[in-house]
Amino acid sequence: MEVMNKILSGSDATNRRLEFPAGSLWAFPMPDGRNSVEFVASDIHEQQWRLKVSVRNEGRYSKPWLKGEWGDYVRQKQLRKGDRVILTMNDEENGERIYRISAERMLFGFWYSIDEQQ
């Protein structure tokens, strides 16, 4: 199930955090009193990335962010503004959630996997 499909902004690609779509928070239930959830997402090469979704405690809007090893992921995949990142989630029969992350770049009007080029 797709959790997030986002075209990266300049700050997403250069900062150590990604502005996470608020509409995707449903996939990360946060225990009462907490403002973040850590999870692991695997890429196509089965490399695991430790990530964290955080929301601010104050203010009118939750303003979620994706942090953790996001900056490392950006550097390894050489992501830039305009690339697309897709995060998916599958609920296993044992109740465990499996997350996958992938990146794509548009070339000549078509999206191509960045992971498959590495």
Helix content: 10-25%
SS-based class: mainly beta
- The run of helices and strands is EHEEEEHEEE
- How many strands? 8
- Uncertain runs: none
Query: If you average the pLDDT, what whole number results?
Result: 92
Radius of gyration: 14 Å
Largest β-sheet summary: 8 strands, mixed
Helical element count?
2
Shape: globular
Strand content: 35-45%
Distance between the termini: 25 Å
Subcellular location: Nucleus
Keywords: DNA-binding, Nucleus, Transcription, Transcription regulation
InterPro entries: B3_DNA-bd, DNA-bd_pseudobarrel_sf
Organism: Salix suchowensis
What does this structure look like?
It is found in: Nucleus. InterPro entries: B3_DNA-bd, DNA-bd_pseudobarrel_sf. This is TF-B3 domain-containing protein. By secondary structure, this protein is mainly β. It has helices spanning 10-14, 70-77; strands at residues 2-7, 18-19, 36-42, 48-54, 65-68, 84-91, 97-107, 110-113. Strands 1, 2, 3, 4, 5, 6, 7 and 8 form an eight-stranded mixed sheet that branches. Strand 3 (36-42) and strand 4 form a beta hairpin. The chain is globular. The two termini are 25 Å apart. The model has no long low-confidence stretch (mean pLDDT 92).
